[in-house]
Amino acid sequence: MTSAAGRSVHTERSDHPVTPVVRAAAAWSWRLLVIAAAAYVAIEILVRLGVVVVAIAIALVFTALLLPAVDFLDRYGAVRGGAVAFVLLLGMAVLAGVMAFVVNQFIAGAPQLADEVTRSIESTRDWLINGPANLSGDQLNRAGDTVIESIRDHQAQLTTGALSTAGTIAEILTGALLCLFTVIFFLLGGRNIWSFVTRVVPAAQRARVREAGAAGFHSLAGYARATSLVALVDAVAIGSGLAIMGIPLALPLASLIFLGAFVPVVGALVTGLLAVLVALLAKGFVFAAITLGLIVAVMQLEAHVLQPLVMGRAVSLHPLAVVLGITAGSVLAGIVGALLAVPAIAFFNSFVRVLAADDPDARGEALENDDGPLVDADADTPD
User: Which Pfam family, giving just one, matches this sequence (predicted)?
Assistant: First the structure.
């Protein structure tokens, strides 16, 4: 019997010449390779359908902002289609008014800014000639001629870039129209659309998937509303400081800061640097330094007060996840990717948490205080 046991151990060792660690590593490796291949294929599909994907993502964000108003009118007896039309027209009128205001303010303030820039250029020229640099007028003229010659040499590249920009504008218009139609149908029957989509899920898991979708959309709505409030505070604070200092184009710059603040952490800072540049050209280094200090102070207020107070209850994301998400989004899809990265993380964070929860009560916590989600966990068939 002992010899038989010895032969059994010997046979087992000969059948498995590799160690358990190597076998486990091999098993993990091929599974990870399959997952990576599937992720690569999914990303390629998303890239090729970029216009459609981006339009749907932006439509979801706008739906999260507008749906409470539509549901409010619906609850008080308004026809659903009429409520959607009213809210959309009101929203587009507000957006058009803001854009018209920004453009008019830029046009009105451009002459003053041009005069300030001209004076700054002249003073810089005098400093370069009469100051420590002690340059001659001929040297400055040759430097200007070099810049002009460089522009002429790269005229073909500039023309190609203009044509590419025209194509991009056409693509943006197509995406905007698709986004508008998607918002309309989401507001009209988004719950039924989600119910229909989730019918492909096995019946045993269908309710959980619908609850996860409701939780994800609830987080997205909270993020959209909180971000709007934070962006408004940033714009008012920085715009007021620019107006007090007499910086040209204070109101248009505040409007740009409002739009940029929808990209967390870096958006308001990047658009605020434009205000620093305008202050530098118009008022000099002292006012530019004060403007930079104002922007940094507002960013600190946002990071330590506004974000935890306003957004903490609706969306709980680690700052590292936000920064990594924005970076990855900008690498994959540029400005649009940076804009949509954090909303996507907020949605999938709640979606996955509810989907993976074992306790139904824990899943239901994410649905509390939901004021009209796009999805309906109890619906089973489309209207």
Answer: AI-2E_transport
In the DSSP assignment, the letter for residue 222 is H
Q: pTM value?
A: 0.65
Closest CA to 209 of 200, 198, 218: 198
- Kindly report, residue by residue over 123-144, the tens digit of the pLDDT: 666 666 666 656 666 665 666 5
With beta carbons less than 8 A apart as the criterion, state whether 270 and 260 touch. yes
Cα 123 from Cα 137, distance rounded (Å): 14
Q: Taking residues 331-352, what's their average pLDDT?
A: 80
Q: For residue 90, give every residue at least 6 positions away whose Cβ sits within 8 Å of its Cβ, in sequence order, or none.
A: none
- pLDDT tens by residue, 160-213: 554 455 556 777 788 788 888 888 988 888 888 888 888 888 888 888 888 888
Handedness of CA 105, 110, 115, 121 (dihedral sign): positive
User: Do 171 and 49 meet the contact criterion of CB atoms below 8 Å apart?
Assistant: no
CA distance 228 to 222: 10
DSSP 122-168: HHHHHHHHHSTT---HHHHHHHHHHHHHHHHHTHHHHHHHHHHHHHH
CB atoms within 10 A of CB 321: 14
In angstroms, the CA 223 to CA 291 distance is: 28
Contacts of 263 (CB under 8 A, 6+ apart): 270, 326, 335, 338, 339, 342
Q: Are 254 and 238 in contact (CB under 8 A)?
A: yes
Residue carrying the six token digits 């507000």: 94
